[in-house]
Amino acid sequence: MSRNTREPRGAGRVDWEPSHLVALLDRKVALREAARQVCTLTGADVALIGEMEDTGVAVVRSWAGTHHTGLHNLVVPTGLGLGGKVLATNRPCRVHDYARSRSITHEFDDPINAEGIRAMLGVPIQRGDEVLGMVYAAYRDPGDFGTRATAALTRIADATALSLAVAELADARREADTLAERRRIAVALHDSVGAMLFTVGAQVRDLRSDGDTTPELAERLGTVERGLAEASTALRRSLAALSDLPAGRSLAATVTADCAAFEERTGVTARAIALTPLPEPDPSRFRILLGAIREALLNVEKHARAASVVVTLMAADGELTAVVSDDGVGLAGSLTPSVGGIGLGAVRERLERLGGDVQVVENDDAGVTVRIRMPLR
Predict the structure, then answer these.
(1) Domains 5-171 and 247-377 share a fold
(2) CATH number for the domain running over 5-171
(3) pLDDT for res 193
(4) Structural domain boundaries of the chain?
(5) Scanning 194, 247, 331, 335, which has the fewest C-beta atoms within 10 Å of its C-beta?
């Protein structure tokens, strides 16, 4: 082997498999481990991993073996430096002596020189045709990269792409579980505190309307009633906050997650089906439509005694339509608006203000169908 050709110090190692990296469900931990493995398996002095964070721009978020911070969190646009060339060509690129290379641009020479880097190899992290970022192996002396070092870095890049995909699925699952727990808390508050406030408010109103009530007692009861109204308003705001969604969550994905949480919580089979591509409504309409779907699912959970429920979504003629259909006991199970003004009655009022509506019909065979219609504008 030539003196200037570097091969992995760990050549021939068999104690690392891509599955070790994929098993790390936290993306930051997985990327840190990937950087460490670059040094171990390629013999590199420095390892860097960049992730795409904007169109055409990657940021170095993980590293190993660095002596300085100049390359930490480095922004690498497509086409600039070695990493930018990897992004532009979507294939491995290398330089034998970074500072003297004529095959790359030199915007990053200062942090590269401060780190003492000479030879460098970059490999794209890909998922299908999509480039997710790049992995670098760097040496502090000039030289070439042997075939085993290149193969090892490519293997790590492939495992990193898979680990990122698995981490995204794990993140989505954690997010769905969090949303389901928030929904469970909202339902519990709605059914307990909301019902209690409604009952106490009704009793106070009955006392105030009693002809035997003295003016002084009527005034005190009025104060109590106003306090109850404020408490009900605060409760509604809290329920709305618990039901708020993370920015960027699509309607189809959110309803699918809600159905999965519903099925896990109740044991009732629940599916979400999008019959057409779904344009995303503005945030206010999104919340109203989602609230209507969730209220219909809540009624199924509380009253229908169903074995299955299907939520169908479609867009046509400038409207979004959601149909929630169950195979339960029908209207005998009662679909009257929920206590506290947060049930189907309140949902209907919100939709009607937007030009939409809610229809509740009993199916011919079994169960109930709730049809929710909302204009996109």
Answers:
(1) no
(2) 3.30.450.40
(3) 86
(4) 5-171, 247-377
(5) 247
Q: Is 102 exposed, middle or buried (0-12, 13-18, 19+ CB in 10 A)?
A: exposed
CA distance 292 to 254: 13
Quick one: tokens of 17?
């498999």
In this prediction the pTM is 0.51
Token pair of 19 as six digits = 């599955």
Helices (H) and strands (E) in the chain, counts: 10, 13
CATH superfamily of 247-377: Histidine kinase-like ATPase, C-terminal domain (3.30.565.10)
Q: Residue written as tokens 């009022």?
A: 349
Instruction: Please tell me which residue, 240 or 161, carries the higher pLDDT value.
Output: 161
Of the listed ranges 17-21, 58-62, 270-274, the one predicted with least confidence: 17-21
On the question of pLDDT at 73 being above 60, the answer is: yes
For the stretch 248-284, pLDDT in tens is: 557 888 888 888 888 888 899 999 898 888 888 888 8
* Cα 35 → chain centroid: 25
Q: Tell me which amino acid residue 354 is.
A: L
Average pLDDT, the chain: 84
Could you tell me if residue 249 is left (phi over 0), alpha (psi between -120 and 50 degrees) or otherwise beta? beta
Is 70 exceeded by the pLDDT of residue 304? yes
Find the range with the poorest average confidence among 98-102, 137-141, 188-192, 337-341. 337-341
| Contact assessment for residue 48 and residue 60, using Cβ atoms and an 8 Å cutoff | yes
CA–CA gap between residue 97 and residue 215 (Å, rounded): 93
Task: Determine phi and psi for 53, rounding to 5 degrees.
Answer: -125, -5
Residues in the chain: 377
Q: Which two tokens stand for residue 327?
A: 């195979």
What pLDDT was estimated at residue 356? 94
User: What is the Rg, in whole angstroms, of the alpha carbon atoms belonging to the chain?
Assistant: 30
Rounded Cα distance, 216 and 308, in Å: 55
User: Is it the case that residue 323 has pLDDT exceeding 90?
Assistant: yes
CA–CA distances in Å: residue 54 to residues 73, 75, 77, 327: 14, 10, 9, 46
Angle between helices 147-189 and 27-42 (to 10 degrees): 170
